[in-house]
Amino acid sequence: MNPILSCEQLTKTFGSKTALAGVDLNIERGRIVGLLGPNGSGKTTLMKLANGLITPTSGRLLIDGEAPGTHSKAVVSYLPEVTYLADWMRTSDVLEFFRDFYKDFDMERALSMLKNLGIGLREPLRSMSKGTREKVQLILVMARRASLYLLDEPIGGVDPAARDYILSTIIGNYEPQSAVVISTHLISDVEKVLDDVVFINNGKIVLSSTVDEIREVKGMSVDALFREVFRC
Ligand SMILES: Nc1ncnc2c1ncn2[C@@H]1O[C@H](COP(=O)(O)OP(=O)(O)OP(=O)(O)O)[C@@H](O)[C@H]1O
């Protein structure tokens, strides 16, 4: 089967700034992949390219064998770094919005995750704490039956006690043949759910490995390896 996401010499520049410089990368189905790198390394740029929000300067990126477009919009579920939902909306409004907008939205799955996290349906987003808003958005994104989930900093505002629960319930709910790409700085929290990691720096992939390989061959956690590779 073809990889769900593949990049060949993917390059993106903004004026004189190079955000991605010749990235070659394959994301296989059934894997949870951590896209890890320091600030400004190109993680969000890669996610935006995968969503077709911006276009490559050169090289190419394919989703399920096709350039981003109508097909990729149907199979990719994207959690952006910044919120795009209007703050007057209640949880029930955003649920309806997703149900109307995405054919693959599983309302039952969303309702069950919201219930498990104690999030009410009548509360408007604007009166929720930042962490609760993040939980709602992550639930919406993970309740789609997508082939590729792209999560840009999904749990930055969530308290440490809730992170584990969210990661295990929400990430555990994804379709087994789908892939999840998570960009995060909270490596020690997230690494237990990762199969693979991709380290990126200055727009280039500097390491691509399974998590088992890092633990077995290097005898380190992903967090420890990240700190070693990117020591300031
Ligand atoms: N619209 C833009 N215009 C100009 N430069 C941009 C734009 N978007 C991103 N960049 C630059 O591209 C580089 C990569 O940015 P990107 O947001 O992809 O990094 P990141 O790895 O997601 O960072 P962070 O961890 O801080 O979120 C940075 O140098 C950034 O300043």
TrEMBL record:
Q: Which Gene3D superfamilies match?
A: P-loop containing nucleotide triphosphate hydrolases
One Gene Ontology term of the molecular function aspect:
ATP binding
- Which top-rank group of organisms is this from? Bacteria
Species name: Papillibacter cinnamivorans DSM 12816
Keywords (A to Z) from UniProt: ATP-binding, Nucleotide-binding, Transport
Record Pfam families: ABC_tran (PF00005)
Q: Which residues form the ABC transporter domain?
A: 5-227
Query: What protein does this entry describe?
Result: ABC-2 type transport system ATP-binding protein
Q: Which PROSITE patterns match?
A: ABC_TRANSPORTER_2
Q: Which PANTHER family match?
A: ABC TRANSPORTER ATP-BINDING PROTEIN ALBC-RELATED (PTHR42939)
